[in-house]
TrEMBL record:
It comes from Fictibacillus macauensis ZFHKF-1. Residues 3-275 form the Phosphofructokinase domain. Belongs to the phosphofructokinase type A (PFKA) family. ATP-dependent PFK group I subfamily. Prokaryotic clade 'B1' sub-subfamily. Its cofactor is Mg(2+). Mg(2+) binds at residue 103. This is ATP-dependent 6-phosphofructokinase. Allosterically activated by ADP and other diphosphonucleosides, and allosterically inhibited by phosphoenolpyruvate. ATP binds at residues 11, 72-73, 102-105. Substrate binds at residues 125-127, 162, 169-171, 222, 243, 249-252.
Amino acid sequence: MKRIGVLTSGGDAPGMNAAIRAVVRKGIYHDLEVYGIYNGYAGLIEGNITKLELGSVGDIIHRGGTMLRTARCEEFKTPEGQAKGIEQLKKFGIEGLVVIGGDGSFQGALRLTEQGFPTIGLPGTIDNDIPGTDFTIGFDTALNTIIEAIDKIRDTATSHDRTYVIEVMGRDAGDLALWAGLADGAESILIPEETHEMEQIIERLNHGLERGKKHSIIIVAEGVCSGLEIGKQIQEKTKLDTRVTVLGHIQRGGSPSAFDRVLASRLGARAVELLLEGKAGRTVGVQNSKLVDHDIQDILTSKHTLDLNMYRLSQELSI
Ligand code: ADP
């Protein structure tokens, strides 16, 4: 293998740049030429492809977003779109590809591998919802962004004796909500993996009030319900002064944490090694602090699980 490509696809996540840098530098270290494909699969179809040098990825390790930019591309879901993509890869003499993104992006990587094009998937998403890895690139940074925001909200919640409902990202996975709730001592954490009764949430609030607690933080993963709806119900069913903050896309941005930079560097470098070893259709992850790789199809057919012991702990600690 002489020439490889790298692209970022789907939702952006902090640390994607560190992963791109690792793929490029590790590739060049092994005398490969590395090509950057801009705008995800859309750029692949269009041939928006440029050779990257050591300097092309300088000064990006600390930047959020992705220098290769990202996109969603419906056309790539079709066999015709995929054929156009493979044609472009062949035109540029690219023999292996690293795709950094979420499960949708992995579907694209699987299609390429099935059609004989060696592709490796790197989990890049703030949601931490990819099986086969304990952490995805971007999760730790997003979590810290949430914590910083909640700490600030807590200051005003305490000053005004208010109840705050904070909606965080996580459509199918409650990892961000759970970790943030545990890290910030939230009274209730609403995650998609569990069922939640409004009566119980109110009961917990009342219990806190009885022991003199005048402010509360409730974290809601967006996949459970809108934070506004929860806030409305609490306001209606209690006399508590309740406010709602939807953190939104602030969670996607910012300089990646040290953890995400290190994770991205390790995963990016391992992806290049796998291509050099002649492997294809693998995803790279970290489990119990060790680098691992799995069959991409297995990853796409298994389900990410959240540590429910952590959920129980959060409940025990917020009595
Ligand atoms: P994420 O990778 O963050 O989960 P998406 O689900 O939007 O983001 O997927 C990103 C892109 O991956 C899509 O816009 C599309 O180009 C490609 N993709 C998603 N699903 C498939 C599929 N079944 N076959 C081929 N490509 C796909």
